[in-house]
Amino acid sequence: VSLSNVVKTVCASPITQALPAADPFADLPAPPATNPCQNGNQSTLQPGTYCKGLSLSGNVTLSPGIYVIEGGDFKASSNANISGEGVVIYLAGTSGV
Predict the structure, then answer these.
(1) Domain coordinates of the chain in residue numbers?
(2) Burial of 62: CB neighbours in 10 Å, binned 0-12, 13-18, 19+
(3) Predicted structure pTM score
(4) For 39-54, how does the pLDDT look when each residue is reduced to its tens digit (9 = 90+)?
(5) SS3 of 43, please?
(6) What DSSP string describes 5-34?
(7) How far apart, in whole angstroms, are the C-alpha atoms of residue 64 and residue 88?
(8) For the chain, how far is it from start to end, CA to CA, in angstroms?
(9) Residue 74 pairs with which residues in a beta bridge?
């Protein structure tokens, strides 16, 4: 999956007063954090816990696995070309996008 080829869905008009969609992952346990914290300064990243968030730019390949983001946000710059297969990005605590 490459984030540079995002499929966009456009509605003819906004849907108002719609109920929120159910979280499909709500019944799954949170993945465990791993030690030590991973460093996000490479062009090929490995699964694990990224303790101060993760900011991506340029060409980045995510190896298969679970990436736990905690203590900061997951950010992708406008020039980021992110690729990977079999990747799950889990935002722990107050981490966001």
Answers:
(1) 34-97
(2) buried
(3) 0.73
(4) 878 899 999 999 988 9
(5) coil
(6) G------SSPPPSPPPPP-TTTTSPPPPP-
(7) 8
(8) 18
(9) 54
